[in-house]
Write a structure and sequence with these properties.
This protein has three domains: about 10-25 and about 435-545, Aldehyde Oxidoreductase, domain 4; about 30-125 and about 180-270, 2-Layer Sandwich (Aldehyde Oxidoreductase, domain 4); about 150-175 and about 275-335 and about 340-435 and about 550-695, 2-Layer Sandwich (Aldehyde Oxidoreductase, domain 4), CATH 3.30.365. About 25% of the residues lie in helices and about 25% in strands. The structure holds dioxothiomolybdenum(VI) ion.
């Protein structure tokens, strides 16, 4: 295995693109100056199900400045596998807000005004947008995202649960939630003959180029995707969304560069969402809190045009030891946009249920919830029997309890009062898979000793540029200012997306391999670099394929303190502490920001986020940031993230497990558990709104 790369400069590094960002030099997709660009604005369906009978673009085309109106009647044919990207290829409407037409005009305002003038006559059909536990359309998907078995079972879970002296059997619900990165989805597209170039807000230039090429029937080399700076994604920019296809289609139609940016309201229909979940968790244990049975049954939703089955019960497969266990996923196809990735898809909603149920079991057994988790720590991955490459949940729980001041906690619910406030504390565990995906890198050095490292990685705000620079400088053994890092362009060596918390592990593996190979070349020449320079390439597919068959995850423990107003039910979270074991932490400043960002989003999930769907209207009425509430500065109190030193010997030379997502997992349960401790009220359906707490 690769020796871990030494990154002596990382501890002192701050965000290398910080000055560019705060001074406005950093350019995001929509901000690139492009000559003679025109603007596309989509028309969204106003029905949730049915067919387009007729379209009338006359009034829109009559508006000065309008160049084209694209509809299913005139749009060029596409070769998209993904129905969400097959823009204007059908007259069928699958959900309200689906893109059904678009206007291209010389100004954004004209395009937007003209979009309102496009008349679409629909044959409306009855729709169904409501997920219920006994829905007639429940079915078993073949797999769950991205490729996990739908169900798993071991031993006799029903028998063991029935025989258990202590039982928890509860339903938990999480609502639909929407990704709202600060930067909206935005694209500038232009054609040069049959070559397409796009500036795009994407989490993965390489994958985006491949997918876009497929939609337009091109070879991958005919599409270039550039993403210099990206303002967040959380999964919603993991693959191209319809805005990219629209910009490219419109650019081809009018023969000019086209800019397309989604409004915040449009994003709620276009960029995916976290599907609501209905989860039943059954835990059976002996009087000492040792689990004998774990059963986690999940109901989720997808759209009628594409399956996305969130892997909600998957984390339950590796968290705690129990000889008898089962996990299942069932789905319903509804007339809604296709759900998609949202930070820790699966683990995030699933661990709300499991970690709430563990707290309920701790109460039922009269055992401290930290101790209960430690008692059920497995020696090997419970379902597969595989060894863990490294697992330090117990250390996170113990050190977190010490730092937080958990010792001597009085477990009685509703027993502490500070003026109008009931106070309490709660704990929950976090977990996320640690993986890497094949990537390539190229590094070259010129005769002056300056290095250029190239990889089609992307920094979506995580600090990837900073971490990769630290890794490259470490692997080359030179100061970071001797290295130029080129990322954010699909013409660079192909790389994994910034997703699944795999970016840093995947990219730093490729970068280290290339840097080490170049360093060897230089060493072989006794340090003499020829006038023409030297270069080396790497490709990590084989090494990743040869990884030992071990179970690899990050873990964490989150501790929350809450105050609940006894009269109004208002919940405040004055203190949150997360302690993580996520392999080696490459750049501490960036890592802390990822952890507390995840925890803040978890707090937001606990208290605020809820995409409400109106059954008649068939859409989300709260489709903007005025009514879709998210945690803001005043909601976040003393929030702290720490980590324990963890040696991850297998997952590439950075030894990093990935930290983008583990921070959001478990936060909502820690807060709900603290709310129970404060009030005696157990909230099993998020968010924890004050109306659910009126005493
Ligand atoms: Mo993350 S939801 O894999 O971008």
């Amino acid at each position: 295995m690769n020796a871990t790369v030494d990154t002596p400069q990382a501890g002192r590094m701050t965000r290398v693109d910080g000055p560019d960002k705060v001074t406005g030099r950093a350019r995001y997709a929509f901000e690139h100056p492009v000559d003679a660009a025109v603007y596309a604005w989509p028309v969204q369906s106003t029905i949730a199900k049915g067919e387009i009978r007729d379209t009338d673009a006359g009034a829109a085309l009559a508006l000065p400045g309008v160049l084209a109106v694209l509809t299913p009647d005139n749009a060029p044919r596409l070769t998209a596998d993904d129905p969400e990207l097959a823009l204007f290829q059908t007259r069928a409407v699958a959900y309200r807000g689906q893109l059904v037409a678009a206007v291209v005009a010389t100004t954004l305002e004209t395009a937007r005004a003209a979009a309102d003038l496009v008349r679409i006559d629909y044959a409306e059909a009855p729709h169904d947008v409501t997920l219920t536990p006994d829905h007639r359309g429940l079915y078993k998907p073949d797999k769950v995202n991205p490729n996990f078995p739908t169900d798993t079972e071991a031993g006799d879970p029903d028998g063991a649960f029935a025989a258990a002296p202590v039982r928890v059997d509860k339903m938990y619900r999480t609502p639909g939630e929407h990704n709202n990165p600060m930067e909206p989805h935005a694209t500038i597209a232009w054609w040069d003959g049959d070559r397409l170039t796009v500036f795009d807000a994407t989490q993965g230039p390489s994958r985006a180029a491949t997918i876009i090429a497929g939609v337009f029937g091109l070879q991958p080399g005919q599409v270039r995707v550039i993403a210099e700076h990206v303002g967040g994604g959380f999964g919603a920019k993991g693959t191209p969304r319809p805005n990219v296809i629209l910009a490219a289609m419109a650019a081809r139609a009018v023969g000019r560069p086209v800019k397309c940016v989604l409004s915040r309201q449009q994003m709620f229909a276009v960029v995916g969402h976290r599907a609501p979940s209905i989860q039943r968790v059954r835990l059976g244990a002996d009087e000492n809190g040792r689990l004998t049975a774990i059963v986690h049954d999940v109901i989720g939703q997808t759209s009628t045009i594409k399956e996305f089955a969130e892997q909600t019960a998957v984390a339950t497969r590796h968290m705690y030891a129990a000889p008898n266990r089962r996990t299942t996923h069932r789905m319903v196809r509804l007339d809604v946009p296709t759900p998609a990735w949202m930070r820790a898809p699966g683990e995030c909603p699933g661990m709300f249920a499991l970690e709430s149920a563990m707290d309920e079991l701790a109460v039922a057994c009269g055992i401290d919830p930290v101790e209960l988790r430690i008692r059920n720590e497995p020696a090997v991955e419970p379902e597969s029997g595989k060894p863990f490459s490294s697992r330090n949940l117990v250390a996170c729980l113990r050190e977190g309890a010490a730092w937080f001041g958990w010792t001597d906690r009085d477990p009685s619910p509703g027993a502490r009062r500070d003026g109008p406030w009931l106070t309490g504390t709660g704990v929950a565990a976090s977990t996320y898979p640690a993986r890497a995906m094949a990537s390539q890198a190229l590094v070259s050095v010129d005769a002056t000793g300056h290095y250029v490292v190239s990889i089609a990685a992307v920094d979506i705000g995580t600090g990837a540029r900073t971490a990769l620079l630290a890794v490259a400088a470490g692997a080359l053994g030179v100061p970071a200012d001797h290295v130029t890092l080129r990322i954010g362009d699909s013409e660079l060596p192909p790389a994994m997306i910034a997703g699944g918390s795999m970016g840093n592990a995947s990219w730093s593996w490729a970068v280290t391999d290339a840097c080490r190979a170049l360093r060897e070349q230089i060493r072989a020449r006794d340090g003499a670099i020829p006038a023409g320079g030297l270069s080396a390439q790497s490709s990590t597919g084989d090494a990743i394929g040869a990884l030992p068959d071990h179970a690899r995850y990050s873990f964490g423990a989150q501790f929350a303190e809450v105050r609940v107003d006894a009269d109004t039910g208002e919940v405040r979270v004055p203190r949150l502490l997360g302690v993580f074991a996520a392999g080696r932490i490459v750049v501490p400043v960036m890592a802390r920001s990822q952890f507390i960002g995840g925890m803040t989003m978890g707090l937001s999930m606990a208290l605020h986020e809820e995409s409400m769907i109106d059954p008649q209207f068939g859409d989300y009425p709260n489709h903007d940031l005025a009514s879709y509430h998210i945690a803001a500065n005043a909601d976040v109190g003393d929030i702290d993230a720490r980590w324990i030193d963890e040696d991850e010997p297998e997952l590439g030379p950075a030894g990093a497990k990935g930290i983008g997502e583990v921070g959001i997992v478990g936060t909502a349960a820690a807060i709900a558990n603290a709310v129970y401790h404060a009030t005696g009220i157990r909230i099993r359906d998020l968010p924890i709104r004050l109306d659910k707490l009126l005493l």
